[in-house]
Amino acid sequence: MKLVSSAENSSLDWKAQYQYIEDIGDGRGYTAGIIGFCSGTGDMLDLVELYADRKPGNVLAKYLPALRRVDGTDSHSGLDPNFPGDWRKAARDTAFQQAQNDERDRVYFNPAVRQGKADGLRTLGQFTYYDAIVMHGDGGDPTSFGSIRKRALRQAKPPAQGGDETTYLNAFLDARVWAMKQEEAHSDTSRVDTEQRVFLRKGNLDLNPPLDWKVYGDSYHIG
Predict the structure, then answer these.
(1) What is the pLDDT of residues 206-221, one digit of tens each?
(2) Whole-prediction pTM value?
(3) What are the two backbone dihedrals, phi and then psi, of residue 220, each rounded to the nearest 5 degrees?
(4) Main-chain phi, psi angles of 107, to 5 degrees
């Protein structure tokens, strides 16, 4: 989470991001929370529905009709002006924090780790999968996580198929960089170039600390 947060929020304090919310101008509406749930891509809607199931009448529940309407668009219709403030208010509620954790695991973390283990990848490989699925999702489009992985598989075999782990991860990161460059909002590839490839070049396939890396020119350290 610290590694992802350094790229997503320029901070290692990922727990401070429960309250994060802004429109970053990438066509996905509001981006918010610990993993960048978006009002335009459905995962924010799923999260707020889960929160409403667990805590009916919460401060965000009234936005559910608007979130259903704006899904698939960058519109703020029915959300402005109070949604960001109410999101930050909800973020103080441990039930909402837990809902964010659970949706992160269900949609992103668990599928990434499961696929990583199936491909015979160690911790670094599982992290590269996780970071990719966080940014690109796992839909059917050419820049989704699944499509990035297929592109990599055309170049190299993962360890589970008898391939070399480092060779395969380099192929995966090449495919990831290609996907990022298809979209202006993601065209800065430093989270690959000066983070993931740094660990790979050092042969740190188990992500053993200490870890030193940069994202967007900022330096980070985990001891």
Answers:
(1) 999 999 999 999 999 9
(2) 0.94
(3) -135, 155
(4) -90, -30
Tokens for 176, please give them. Answer: 């990831």
**219 forms bridges with which residues in the sheet?**
214
**Rounded-to-integer distance, Cα 158 and Cα 61, Å:** 44
CA atoms within 13 A of residue 66's CA, in its CB half-sphere: 17
For residues 150-169, one letter each, b for 16 or more C-beta atoms within 10 angstroms of the residue's C-beta and e for the rest, the string is ebbbeebbbbeeebebbebb
26 counts as catalytic: yes
AA letter at 14:
W
Q: Which residue has the tokens 């009448």?
A: 57
What's the pLDDT tens digit per position in 118-171?
999 999 999 999 999 999 999 889 999 999 999 999 999 999 999 999 999 999
Q: Which of 8, 71, 165, 195 is catalytic?
A: 8
* Other residues' Cβ atoms within 10 Å of the Cβ of residue 80: 12
| Class of residue 85 by CB neighbours under 10 A (exposed 0-12, middle 13-18, buried 19+) | exposed
Lowest mean pLDDT, pick from 127-136, 176-185, 190-199, 200-209? 176-185
Q: Of 13, 22, 23, 26, which one is the catalytic site residue? A: 26
The SS3 assignment for 138 reads coil
Kindly report the length of the chain. 223
- Name which of 28, 31, 1, 32 is nearest 15 in CA terms: 1
- 195 tagged catalytic: no
